[in-house]
Structures are given as C-alpha cells and as structure tokens.
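Board notes (copied after class):
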Amino acid sequence: MNVRAAFAELVGVFGFVFIGVSSVVVAAMPNSTLGLFGVAVAHGLGIAVMASAVAPVSGGHLNPAVSIGAWMANKLSLVDTVGYLVGQVAGAVLAVATVGYAFGNAALSDVMFGTPEIAARLTTTQAVIVEGVLAMFLVLSVFGTCIDSKAPKTGALFVGLSVLMGVLAGGTLTGASMNPARYLGPAIYGGALGDWVVYVSGPILGAAVAVAIYLYIRRPDAGEQPAD
C-alpha cells in the first residue's frame, strides 16, 4: 500500500470538505448573501486547489467514486484503492470536526453538519439517479483531464468546474454530493447515516458508467472511420 498517497488523499479531502462545509455554514448565517452559487463556487475551488496540491503524489482523486473507478479501469491496485478510501473518509470526518471547532457545533448542527439532504419531492430511486448522473459527469471529467495519459496539466481546474456545475444543477435536489466522502464525513460526525445508500451507491454507479464510456471511446480502434 502506498501510505504517502493515502495520506495525500486524506489531506486533500480534508481541505476540500473543510471549505465545502464551511461555505454551507456561512450560507446559513443571518444576512448571508453566499447562496447556492457561492456554495457551488466554494466546492469547485476547494476540489480544484486541493486536487492540484496532491496530484503529484496520489493523482488527486479526493473522491471514493473516482478511486473505485480508477480501480475498475485497472489504473489503481485494490490495496491502494482501499488505502485511498480510508484516507478520504478519515479526512472528511476530521474536516467536519475542525469546522465544528472553528464555527461552533451549534452553527454546524443548524445545517445538519453539512450533510447533503434529499429533497422531499424525490424518491430514493430518483435521488440515486441524480447522484449517479452528476457523478458520471464528474468522473468522466477526471478521467479525461487528469488520469488519461494525454490529460492537460490544468486538469484539476476542469474537475473543479465539474463540481461547480453539479452543485448548481443538483444542489436543490440531493445537495449534489457526487462524492461518498463528502457525505460520509458529515454523516458520521453527526450520527445521521440514514441516506448512505443514495450517496454511496449513486456516485459509484455513476463512476462505473463513466469508466465504461471512457474505456470505449479510448479504445485503439475508436477513432477509425467506417468504410465507404
């Protein structure tokens, strides 16, 4: 197991979740003008900056769905995948605890510890689909701009934009987690794991679809033109 890479994932997720949950707390404060757009920008910038910071060591996954997708695509060993997942979830829990210390647990509990919530009008199946589709876009962007051998050096920026896009599109539906660690950190800290199936299975299913699409379009014969 690459312990340094797992630790890099812990640090990266810590930074991302700290910024993300802090933005949720600030948005809920009286007279705050942050709103959904501000929360989306905070999450997008958080993932872009932290992914860039740890990418040379771990690849900057910062998302269990991405790491599982990398394993599915044979780009990460099973042992390292487990290490990444442990680091990511641990980093998320530590981040929420730090937000609670900085803002006070009362302010944190007012926003359900930053735990994403499913809109009342959605069924569980609909919520899984929303999380899956948003995660599919995100994981596909990670593979195309970060993991692929032809990926640009600025790949993390586009991953951040994918997160921003996802929060704007699905924030009012499921909170647009797209990331099991982003859900599990606050949920574990706050002791509210009731929707874990949605926020774990949805992104992983989306990652599986993204990997299938990526592997298909990256086949050696994918660029061949049909004969006249």
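Comment from the instructor: The mean pLDDT is 91. Residues 78-103 form the longest helix (26 residues).
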